[in-house]
Each structure stands twice: as C-alpha cells, then as structure tokens.
C-alpha cells in the first residue's frame, strides 16, 4: 500500500486556488469517519451494536460498513467478546491491521524521537538522536530527521519504501491541513512548506502536526481516549500546548491552526512571549518564562539561559530548599496555570483534562492549590471540580502519537476515497 | 404532533442517575443528524448530491434518507433547481415543513420578545413585553414569560396546545442538556430547573439555552450559517457571549456549559465581573463595566447606575463630543474586545466571526483599530486578517434563534428516535 497523501489537497480544495483551507477540518466531515472511529475506539464491535451506538438502522450500518470493508479499512472476525449460545460466534468488525508500517517522529529542542509501529499501532522499533539545544534551519532539522529515520529503519531492517506514512510533529504553529510550518520555536525560519519538503527529502508520504496534537492523538488511540468521547489535553514543555477531542475525533479548529491555548492572552501588554507578542499564557508558565527570572533567585554567576533544563532544575531545587524568590517564581506559574485551565473549563466544559509534558514533573505546577484555584476561577463553581489527571509521558509517547497521526492520515485518505 | 422533549433525558442517560451529562452533546452524535443538517443547510438537495457532499455511496445515502423520510423529518419534492433534459424533474429532498408551530422567546433585562414560526422557520406573529430593569425571581420571570406567550398566541389565534415546542433563551449559564439555569444576571436565584419549571407552567415542551447560542442558531438556520460550515459569534449586550458552529452544528462544549468567552480570565485578579469573579473579559467590555466608570467621566449628580442604557448613551455622546475620560473608557473596552477576539482566533481559527448584540451600535467597539489590534494579537499574523462582520440584530432576531432552538430540538428528538 502506498497512499499518496500529498494528493489529498486537490480533493479537499476543488477550486484548486489560494491557500488550501478545507471547508471543514471538523469532526465527522465524512460519515465513514464516524463509523470507522466508532470501530477503532471500540476495538471490536458487531454491526448491531454499532447501529445502536450510532442510532441508525441496521440497513444503513450494513451499507456504510460495506464501504469500509471494500476500502480495506475494516475487517470481519469472530467476536471473541461474546459467544453465541447457539455455538457459532457472531461476526465482529475491527480495524484492518495489515495496512503496512508507519513511523512517528517527535522533533524537540534537545532530542528527536522516532517510533516504528504496525497498522494496529503496536511499537516495533525506536530510535532517538540528541541534538544541539538551539534554533536551527529547517534544512538542518530535516537532515537530523533523516538521520533518526534511517537509524530507526536500520534497527528494524526496513527500507524507506516499506513505510506507508511518516507522522511528524514539532512545537509551534504547524498547519496539519496545508502542511505548512507557520512558526516554531525550534526553527530560525517562518512559513515553510514543511510537509512538502519532508516528502521531497524522504520520498514517503508525510503528515505534520503541532506536538500537542500528537499527545492528544496518543491518548485518543492508545490511552484514555479509547473510552472517552470528549477530553482536553494541556501540555507544558518548551511552550504550552492544547489538544481537544470532540466526539472521538481530534479538533484542530475550523482551519487547522486553532487550539493555541499557550498564545491566548491572559494579560494586556503582559510578559513577553517567545512568539514575539505580550501577555500570552505560556509567557507565564513555560520553561523559558521561569528561567528568565532565575537570575533574581539564583546566584547570577551560575545563571546560563542557554541551558534552560539545568537552570529549571536548579530553580526547582532552590524552591524546595526554601529559597523565597524561587518559590515565588513557581507560585506565579502555578496561578497562571490555574487561570489557563479555568479558561479551558469555561470554554470547553470537558469531563477530563489531561496534563502532560516533561514540566509536569515539577509538582509546584500540579499541586492541590492549583486545582483549587482552577475550580475557583471556573464559572460553574457549583459543579463538582473538573477531573484533572497528570500523564507525564516521555518523548516516546509523543512519537507514538506521531505514529497515530500517520495511521489516521492513512485511514482518512482511504475513507475519503483517496487511497 | 406533540414531542415529549422532556423524556429525552432518560435516553441520553441510560444509567438514569446523577446529574444528566450525555456522553457527547457534540456534532454528529448521530449520523442521521449529519444527513438532516446537510439537507437543512442546502434547502433542497438530491440524493446523489448529498452522497457526494457526505462522501458516501448512494446505497448508504438511500438507507439513511429512508430513515429520515420514515421519521417525517424530510420530504421528497421536485427539484426546482435543476430540470432534467429528459423532461421529468429529478427528485429533491427538503425539510418537512408540516411539523407544527413553535415559539421562540428571548428573555432580557428590559424586554421579553416572542416569535411564532412554522416548521420551516417562517415568522407568523410576534409579541413583546417591557419589564422592570432589575434582577427578579424565577417565578416572576416565568409569570412574565407566560404573559408574552399568551399575547403572542392571542395575536395568532392559537392555543398553547397548538404549540409543539417553546425555545426559551436568557443570558447566563443555561445548561441546554439538563435544562438547568445555573446562573443568570436576570435572576436572583441560582441553580433552578428552568426547563422543568417552564414546562410545568406552560404545559408545552420547552428547550432552554444561553442567549448567545440563540443568535448563533439564528445565523445557522436563517442567516450566514446556511452557507458556512464553521463560524463563531460573539455577542455584546448585558454580558459577553459566544456561540460556535462546527460543521453545520452548534457546539456547546463537551457538556453543554462551554463557550463562556465572557468569563474567560484576561487579567489575574482583575476587574470585578457580575458573576462575582475577577478578571473576566466581560468585566472590561459589557455595559455594566462601562457604566460603573461613568461617574468619573460624567457629572456625578447625573449618574444613575440603575439606568445603564441611559448612562451608556450619555457616555457615548460625551465620547463623541471629545470628553477624554469617556473616550478612554470606550478605548479600553475596544482593546479588550480585540484581545478577546484574538483569543477566539487563536483557539478556534474560524473563517468568520460575527459580532452581534445591541452594544455593537457603539462604533468605538467595532472600529478599524479594534480589528487591527485583534490581528496583531493573533498568533498567525502572517495570514490574512480574520473576516469579521457586525450583525447588530435586535431582540426579534434573538427570538427567531429561540424558535430555531425549538425546531432543532424537535428534529433532534425525532432523529434520535424519541419523537
């Protein structure tokens, strides 16, 4: 199978002119998606249960499932979850696992991580590459991406031609629909056709996305999201990201550049953000926001803003040891996190918020008083406090999400009849 | 037809215990919805075009349309938009207009407005009731609602029994799914079962919603939304509200208490909001936020905070006449509006934002520099400025939206098989 994902744009944009903005990146843009997603999240389900769940007639489900079977997206198997009393096990539907290998790659400041999975999402091999912690050109970044990809393929004994799709994620504004990298804290350039350049470099179909969406896809395909229709993910790393799942699908905004929670403004003319604007939420929470105040709390001769991970660790240890300035720095970050989470509650009313990212190891950010403040700032204070969980997954989980991105890209392409 | 909408909860919440929180209020929770919405937004469409639009096979569409025809939600008619060359006009689908009368009622501070429409949404009669501009009990409010309802029915020569459903909207946190009024600036009480009490009072099925959602439904059913899959509405009246349409459906958040843009925090420990919290967006934009600073700009002996409409008009005239303090009040409101709109762009990336509500008559709020600031605060500044339109509809448009709420409630109940 070799899905030409790059061809999908001409379908999504029949007019064929101007920047590609599909009418709706939204949930259930195809009825087939809806049926496929229900089977995927159930794992294994019968036609009759599917009809009940989607509240349509058996005749309608039979027709829709028939399309997905013909496309090779679903397969029939014996339903092992329920044995018929008559002896013959009923037929169940599940996702077709023989759709090839995909690779998920998470690009980050200090390290790139790659994961090879089969079509059912099972990890087969992994690789990572340490790199210089500074902004660099897109060309160099793609060079590094190629290195980690080849290391992964060597490990697995595969060639690039064996890969059906690469899911590639990085922090910043990455437009999934058009494949454009609008802005990223990793890169020196702005506005480059990331997907196209990556496909040219690797000769494999590529899907790109914001890294917060990778974590969300990982939760949706392999984590909490298998059982939950709606949830939000907030990530805290080099920046603050957000992912939103509505009715079992990732929602990226009407175009696909939404959910930029980290850049919503929480203070008029406030703190300077790495995006160049003032008052963004992440300018009060992300690691660089904490590190730039470190010189006030730490011995200035030991402050090295070029080594944020080291600085943040020092700051954290100082706070733990009772350094008041260090405590105040974390305290304000915690209050702004509470404010940001309350805004998520006021806007999306999600039954669950998952906090993720390596910064969640700092328990100042995820403390009981942060959750109390979040609840106090939510409009509907009479309701029970929102459920908040911390999943401080490492880079491998993000790479797994990138693999889910590649898998969903293949499924979407096939469901849309572009496969 | 007499749809028992109040029975729907037991279906949405099969467990039948605890506060009713359907798994998903989201878009396309039923495939039938998706098909019905496509026909409604198209007005008239053939099966083959519907299959193309929804990217499914003709067999699947035939099955799904068959269900909607059986339910009496759609009807077949001659397709007047395209004549067959063979002489016989092809068959088109459209929404069944013979589904009874519905009433939309908008409750507001100074006046309640009611509108009677047929099932196709065509206005047949209207009525309004002026009332005291102060918070009052829910009992008194329902009394007033009954008065305006009866005035409307008298005008139309109908009885309450002729009404299939009443759509009732008011400002505040109104939980459409559960029918609960959590909080409203109109009322002295909190947390009352609004829908149940209204149904008991009027003997007619009632659907309730936040008033910003009414405007959004009005745009969706009768305005811009017939042609657009995704858009956002921001309303500025006694408070600041928001409505979001995703893929032709109103999105209310995962529960149905989301989209509270007016109560997202834009300043830590900021200005006092009518909800009792600090730093809410509406505490910088809504009429009460402007009026409470009026005593600084106007002759204090003329200031009457109990007459906000009068005060706001005076303030506006003073600003126009060059009163610097009055200008500064509007200027800050405009800057915060820009900030709030930029947050909407950063989160939802909508192709269109519609500004609505009576305060939009103050051109300080909708000035070119507000839009410039909004664009400057949007993360994706390289993109073309977001499209923003002002629709300063009056109360009748909101009541029309309330009627759309009642119509969509009937359609949803029937599509879910509860009709």
Q: What is the mean predicted local confidence, pLDDT of chain A?
A: 84
The oligomeric state is homodimer
- Largest protein-protein interface: A-B, 73 and 73 residues
The CATH architecture of the largest domain in chain A comes to: 2-Layer Sandwich
Strand content of chain A: 15-25%
Predict the CATH topology of the largest domain in chain A: Nucleotidyltransferase, domain 5
Low-confidence stretches of chain A: 1-29
Number of helices of chain A: 14
- What gap, in angstroms, lies between the N and C termini of chain A? 9 Å
Rg over C-alpha atoms of chain A, rounded to the nearest angstrom = 22 Å
- CATH H-level superfamily title of the largest domain in chain A: ATPase, nucleotide binding domain
Count structural domains of chain A. 3
Characterise the protein shown here.
Two copies of one chain form a homodimer. Chain A is built from 14 helices and 14 strands. The N terminus of chain A is likely disordered. Helices cover 38% and strands 18% of the residues of chain A. Chain A has a five-stranded mixed sheet with strand order 5-4-3-6-9. Chain A folds into three domains: 91 residues, Arc Repressor Mutant, subunit A (Orthogonal Bundle), CATH 1.10.10; 137 residues, 2-Layer Sandwich (Nucleotidyltransferase, domain 5), CATH 3.30.420.40; 167 residues, ATPase, nucleotide binding domain (Nucleotidyltransferase, domain 5), CATH 3.30.420. In chain A, helix 7 packs across helix 14. Chain A has 419 residues and is of the alpha/beta class. At the A-B interface, helix 2, helix 4 and helix 12 of A face helix 2, helix 4 and helix 12 of B.
